[in-house]
Amino acid sequence: MSQRLRVEELSKTFHGRRSWRTMHTPSVHAVDDVSLTIEPGQTLALVGESGCGKSTLVRTIAGIYQATAGRIFVGDADISDRRALRRHRRAVQLVPQNPLSSLNRSRTIRHALTQPLRVHHIGADRSAQERRAATLLEQVGLSADYLPRLPVGMSVGELQRVVVARALAVEPSVLLLDEPTSSVDLTTKARIINLLLDVQRSFDLTCMIITHEIDIARHLSHRMAVMYLGRIVESGLTEEVFNRPRHPYTQMLVASATAADPLAGRHTGDMPRGEVPSDGSHADGCAFSPRCAHTADVCRAVPTLRAVGPDHRAACHRIEQIDTAVP
Ligand SMILES: Nc1ncnc2c1ncn2[C@@H]1O[C@H](COP(=O)(O)OP(=O)(O)O)[C@@H](O)[C@H]1O
Ligand code: SF4
Ligand SMILES: [Mg+2]
After folding, report:
1. Is 318 found in the same domain as 211?
2. Which residues contact 88 (CB under 8 A, 6 or more apart)?
3. 272 CB less than 6 Å from ligand 2?
4. Is 205 touching ligand 2 by the criterion CB < 6 Å?
5. Interval between CA 22 and ligand 2 midpoint (Å)
6. pLDDT digits (tens, 9 = 90+) for 142-195
7. Which candidate in 41, 184, 260, 296 could, as Cys together with 2 as Cys, close a disulfide (CB 3.0–4.6 Å)?
8. Does one domain contain both 66 and 211?
9. 154 lines ligand 1 (CB under 6 A)
10. Is the CB of 51 under 6 A from ligand 1?
11. Are residues 114 and 37 in the same domain?
12. 233 domain-assigned
């Protein structure tokens, strides 16, 4: 049964090695003070370019990384505590970015699907667990014929279905999907999108889908959150954020998503340029300022999220001055 996912002021900092020359310990604030809520049964798309902290955020929610600060709730249960997480581990399942690397290449699909059942004591005996594994494969559009197969030699689309089935095996309330459509061709992408829509509906799940493709986000989600260097810079109903992006970074993502479509006629005049810094380093004040075409003195302070419309928030000091008419 789906439950509300609530993340409160979550941060995750990675500390590098101290340099013997400068005696400085570099740290990356991969997730910085993130708060978000996904209502039961809804899907939130988390969008942003590579290096913005999306995977770190879901890996922290899934308990793979220990949060540096903040709390995570599934329903009323606080799962940010390590001991509580063990009890609630079943409730939150992550479908990782690279399906092949998350499967043991020398073990069969049968093993991949029945192992979580054994760990969580689901199914009366081995044959019940195997029947459940076969049913799961059918539910993701594969068949029991895959049970004795090894991951090697399977297509990315098939592997993606297996890892979705493995996540569903333990009947989670919350499903986190990290770039489920990256590294697949267009036809497979369409199939995976349809599979995810089906799965979300028939399994009654609360979902978070990470993607750097804003058009995929639009297809799959009720709400959208845009992340830049560890912080949420805009959030709201997906159609509202897509049709009226207010933050310069979101405007850039939307404009580049529609650039291939000449009929879309998106505004590209003062579009930001450049890339996410590869070392995750932040400018002082607004982290987006080195790429922003609207920077002013006020941007030396870190902007926080504020209402910019009904159920729509953005973190930018100059919203009122920026052309919002991205048609
Ligand atoms: N295990 C790690 N150790 C140190 N730095 C990391 C680790 N994982 C991610 N990072 C850094 O955190 C930042 C965000 O990375 P990531 O969460 O993978 O972003 P995204 O998924 O949006 O591409 C990057 O600067 C990345 O180099
Ligand atoms: S706060 Fe300033 S630098 Fe940051 S996005 Fe807004 S205008 Fe650009
Ligand atoms: Mg990632």
Report:
1. no
2. 74, 77, 79
3. no
4. no
5. 32
6. 999 999 999 999 998 999 999 999 999 999 999 999 998 887 888 888 888 888
7. 41
8. yes
9. no
10. yes
11. yes
12. no
Give how far Cα 87 sits from Cα of 39, 150, 165, 300, Å.
Answer: 22, 31, 21, 43
**Do residues 205 and 254 both lie within one domain?**
no
CA–CA distance, 222 with 235 (Å, rounded to integer)? 11
User: Does pTM surpass 0.90?
Assistant: yes
**Total domains in the fold of the chain:** 2
Looking up residue 215, the CATH number of its domain turns out to be: 3.40.50.300
**What spacing in Å lies between the alpha carbon of 300 and ligand 2's midpoint?**
9
| Pocket probe mutation, ligand 1, options 25, 56, 60, max atoms within 8 Å of Cβ | 56
> Atom of ligand 1 at shortest distance to CA of 212?
22
Residues 102 and 176 in one domain: yes
CA 150 to CA 106: how far, in whole Å?
A: 7
Collect residues with CB below 5 Å from ion ligand 3.
55
Nearest to 292 by CA among 308, 260, 307, 314: 314
Domain that holds residue 326: 239-327
Residues 58 and 182 in one domain: yes
- Edge-to-edge strand list for the sheet holding 5-15: 27-38, 5-15, 69-74, 77-78
Mark whether 286 and 149 lie in a shared domain: no
Residue 279: pLDDT band (50, 70, 90) is confident
